Amino acid sequence: MDTQIIDGKKIAADMRAQLKKIIQTLPKKPHLAVILVGDNPASVLYVNHKVKAAEEIGVFVEVHQFSPVMTNDTLVEFIHDLNKDADVDGILVQLPLPTPLKSDLIIQEIDPQKDIDGLHYVNLGKLFVGQPGILPCTPQACLALIKSACPDLEGLNAVVVGRSNLVGRPLAQLLLDENCTVTQAHSKTKNLAQITAQADILVSATGQAHLIKREYVKEGAVVIDVGISRLENGKLSGDVDFQNVLGKAGFITPVPGGVGPMTIAMIFQNIIQIVQKKACSKS
Ligand code: NDP
Q1: pTM for the structure as a whole
Q2: Fold of 137-260
Q3: Which protein residue has the closest C-alpha to ligand 1 atom 5?
Q4: pLDDT above 80 (res 283)
Q5: How large is the average pLDDT for residues 55-67?
Q6: Could you report the per-residue pLDDT of 91-122, keeping only the tens digit for each?
Q7: Which of the four, 79, 124, 138, 219, has the lowest number of CB atoms within 10 Å?
Q8: How confident is the model at residue 276, as a pLDDT?
């Protein structure tokens, strides 16, 4: 079987082009506040990607960069100021935060209506009870990529490897909402390969390079690789042993160039949704 590569870069570029048109119809240019603490090279790189993409489509991004020695209290106070600033539509805290800052505690201080990453408990709670809210970006990106390969998911077996609040748990819920039969696997799962080999849709979000090998994949499955890790040779790797599963998976996302660019596009989709909602509530 020929494995088709899901081109996340292209799908994301098409989506950004559509979002750019929508932004031109909004009553104001969306304003995204990004908080970056410290100078972790990966975090700086991710923020730069976001700023570049935002400028291209007409979102105003203000990056607030802080020294890594800042305290939880100072950061919380700053977030409260952004919450009160009527011009700021969305707030994004670039994760991970350096220790001893507590990411989970900090995120809960963001106004849920400005929570661009959809990670506030209010938004996660809404997702789990089926109420409209702001959805987390990476799970939304995974779902969009899955649907680009397989638009109707009803009744399919989906396996999500990973159960973080950032990716695995919300993605499992999104797939359940698409009427998939969902299995959530994690580091304590026994016989992982037997479970993943039943999956029509297989998503891996563990950060364990090359965890998913050929025998883990069902013939023809849609395989979405969220993981990003750095190999000893300095190259980036996903969770899936890409070369090894070619010819068995039906569709696969590459790393890089798969989930990453779509995750960024979803940030902009979320901020547009926030600005549109504000405009509706004013009229
Ligand atoms: P976490 O470390 O929070 O969670 C990892 C999950 O993987 C945990 O649930 C863990 O299980 C599970 N796990 C770890 N090892 C194994 C194993 N050997 N077998 C089965 N399950 C395992 O990571 P995140 O969810 O935040 O991120 C996951 C990966 O996705 C990372 O590589 C991250 O860099 C990447 N990522 C990529 C994004 C993108 O835009 N492309 C965005 C966000 C994340 P347990 O719960 O039992 O510990």
Answers
A1: 0.97
A2: Rossmann fold (3.40.50)
A3: 206
A4: no
A5: 96
A6: 999 999 999 999 999 999 999 999 999 999 99
A7: 219
A8: 95
- Residues 28-117: name the CATH superfamily: Leucine Dehydrogenase, chain A, domain 1 (3.40.50.10860)
CA gyration radius, the chain? 19
CA of 205 to the centre of ligand 1 (A): 4
CB atoms within 10 A of CB 182: 20
For residue 265, the one-letter residue type is A
Q: Coil, strand or helix: which one is 83?
A: helix
Length of the chain: 283
Q: 207: Cβ below 6 Å to ligand 1?
A: yes
Residue 179, classed as helix, strand or coil, is: coil
pLDDT tens column, 120-178? 999 999 999 999 999 999 999 999 999 999 999 999 999 999 999 999 999 999 999 99
- Backbone angles phi and psi of 104, in degrees to 5: -65, -45
